[in-house]
UniProtKB/TrEMBL annotation:
Lineage: Bacteria, Bacillati, Actinomycetota, Actinomycetes, Propionibacteriales
Entry keyword set: FAD, Flavoprotein, NAD
Pfam families assigned: Pyr_redox_2, Pyr_redox_dim
Domain FAD/NAD(P)-binding: 6-328
Cofactor (UniProt): FAD
Protein name, entry field: NAD(P)/FAD-dependent oxidoreductase
Domain of life: Bacteria
Family affiliation: Belongs to the class-I pyridine nucleotide-disulfide oxidoreductase family.
Entries under InterPro entries matching the protein: Class-I_Pyr_Nuc-Dis_Oxidored, FAD/NAD-bd_sf, FAD/NAD-binding_dom, FAD/NAD-linked_Rdtase_dimer_sf, Pyr_nuc-diS_OxRdtase, Pyr_nucl-diS_OxRdtase_dimer
Domain spans labelled Pyridine nucleotide-disulphide oxidoreductase dimerisation: 364-470
Length: 479
């Protein structure tokens, strides 16, 4: 047993853990990071990056095929092997040498192994060989252990060895028939990817497709998935699952209908990686999401800090927003706050303050890389109404801009702006359409900056771009 002391100990070297460690070390404190798998976490090897690599080539191909003059230059089909090779490269071939080298260059010692809080301000790291190291934190222990795919208790499901997002994203071959349980983000993106790679795909979308977004998103994405050959069963629920000796998976729906597949992907959300991290030593329940206050301190059921404030949780594990960019935003704020406290400076976690993560509640941007893409930030109309806001909703047909008509033949898309009528500012913005991802940041800035609509009239979109939708929405709103 060895023992070391640092100012800060971070458990989990995913994108969020890496970022908080970097911030702390840049502020002049010492930090150690603990990782049991690959430095870089889910995002680098089994989520954000490799999924987008799986999707990008077919998106580019479809874009070319929508343009006369360019489409004639494309004679072949998607090269599936080349797409999978590019995916492998984006997953760094599931090796973390590059990220380990970055940790070294940043001055962040890495402890490989499973981290467990042992009460006090200590974390015990158990290496693969069973060797134990105790890391004591002078100022803070930060839990950034992320989340894993949730597998529900469906009769026979676990025994049938279903794919989660991990096996799907890292697949070495494209299955002939892929059935997906779920209609959320992973399900929609993977249905898009695997249909384009040649699989016959069926989705069991119990609650609809992308149903947490504005309703027109799910409608347009479902329609496009169907056009791409995906069978979308809205309202369908798996009741039992069985895998045959020959590998065929039989999924019996609650209606009695049976569907067969070569692989079954379960994509119904996430569960926190907190089963075995010593939560019981600080009075918390193992396996639970870690609730945090505005300062990212872990709080107990009574909303009071669970451990005399030294225990923090950021990223997926605190369930605020399960997105890399938002977790990294929390990491920057928390890292700077830990440094500020150490220097005796003021920590400001009031709304939009230097150490607050206010955007988590009001301005979370998300892009879903389906075909067409969906991009949204802030509140949907339904969420704004539920929050008690007096709103006005402005819709516009994206295909009616000069820019979109040039962008692709038969461009179809839609934009919605949700305005808080009492403050005359935008609180929500959603787009669905080809290549709308890069349009989103303008909306994020308008929401975070609380730019008054009167001032937005002076933000003139260039002609002929798809961004002209901003002008059209303002014209529809009226001056
Ligand atoms: C298929 C898929 C696609 C996605 N695509 C996107 C996208 O395009 N854009 C986006 O913003 N988000 C995307 N996400 C979400 C994104 O992956 C997560 O929000 C992000 O990875 C969270 O980062 P994190 O650092 O909190 O956790 P993780 O990335 O899960 O990292 C946590 C790390 O902690 C380690 N760990 C856990 N427990 C311990 C322990 N006890 N001891 C030591 N180490 C431990 C894990 O091994 C892991 O490396 C996607 C998710 C999925 C599943
Ligand atoms: N492009 C991106 O930003 C991106 C891509 C992939 C994943 N992610 C993130 O990863 C997280 C996980 O994604 P996800 O798709 O697993 O979760 P999700 O929350 O997006 O979707 C889960 C879906 O499963 C359905 N569902 C829940 N329980 C069910 C059950 N028992 N049976 C059938 N359906 C059920 C829900 O209604 C929902 O439609 C999300 O929070 C997402 O933000 C982001």
């Amino acid at each position: 047993m060895t023992a070391e002391t640092y100012d800060v100990v971070v458990i989990g070297a995913g994108p969020v853990g890496e970022n908080v460690a970097d911030r702390v070390v840049q502020g002049g404190l010492s930090v150690a990071i603990v990782e049991r798998e690959l430095v870089g976490g889910e995002c680098s090897y089994w989520a954000c990056m490799p999924t987008k690599a799986l999707l990008r080539s077919s998106a580019a191909l479809r874009a070319v095929r929508s343009l006369p003059g360019a489409r004639e230059a494309v004679t072949g089909d998607l090269d599936v092997e080349a797409v999978l090779r590019r995916r492998d490269a984006f997953a760094s071939n599931w090796k973390d040498d590059g990220q380990v080298a970055w940790l070294e260059s940043a001055g962040i010692p890495l402890y490989r192994g499973h981290g467990r809080i042992t009460g006090g301000r200590s974390v015990e790291v158990t290496g693969e060989d069973g060797a134990k190291t105790t890391l004591t934190a002078r100022r803070a222990v930060v839990v950034a252990t992320g989340s894993s795919a949730l597998v529900p208790d469906i009769d026979g499901l676990r025994a049938a060895a279903p794919w989660t997002s991990r096996e799907t994203v890292a697949a070495k071959e494209v299955p002939g028939r892929l059935v997906i349980i779920g209609g959320g983000v992973v399900a929609s993106e993977m249905a898009t990817a695997f249909a384009s790679l040649g699989a016959s795909v069926e989705m069991l979308a119990r609650d609809g497709v992308l149903h947490m977004q504005e309703p027109f998103v799910g409608e347009r994405v479902s329609e496009a998935l169907r056009e791409a050959g995906v069978k979308v069963h809205v309202g369908a629920e798996a009741g039992a699952v069985r895998r045959d000796g020959d590998g065929t998976v039989h999924i019996t729906l609650t209606t009695g209908e049976e569907i067969e597949a070569d692989e079954l992907l379960v994509a119904i959300g996430r569960t926190p990686n907190t089963n075995d991290i010593g939560l019981e030593t600080v009075g918390l329940k193992p396996g639970s999401w870690l609730t945090v206050d505005d300062a990212m301190r872990v709080v107990a059921d009574d909303d009071q800090p669970a451990a005399d404030p030294w225990l923090y949780a950021i990223g997926d594990v605190n369930r605020r927003v399960l997105l890399t960019h938002q977790g990294k935003y929390q990491a920057r704020a928390l890292g700077d706050a830990i440094v500020a406290r150490a220097k005796g400076e003021t920590v400001d976690v009031t709304a939009w303050g230097r150490h607050a993560s206010t955007a988590d509640e009001r301005a979370v941007p998300q892009v879903v890389f389906t075909e067409p893409e969906m991009a949204a930030v802030g509140l949907t109309a339904a969420a704004a109404e539920a929050a008690g806001l007096r709103i006005r909703v402005i819709d516009y047909d994206l295909a009616a801009t000069a820019g979109s008509s040039l962008h692709a033949e038969g461009y179809e898309g839609h934009a919605r702006m949700v305005v808080d009528e009492d403050r005359k500012v935008i609180v929500g913005f959603t787009l669905v359409g080809p290549d709308v991802a890069e349009l989103l940041h303008a909306a994020t800035i308008a929401i975070v900056g609380e730019v008054p609509l009167d001032r937005l009239w002076h933000a003139v979109p260039a002609f002929p771009t798809v961004s002209e939708v901003w002008l059209r929405l303002l014209e529809a709103y009226g001056r």
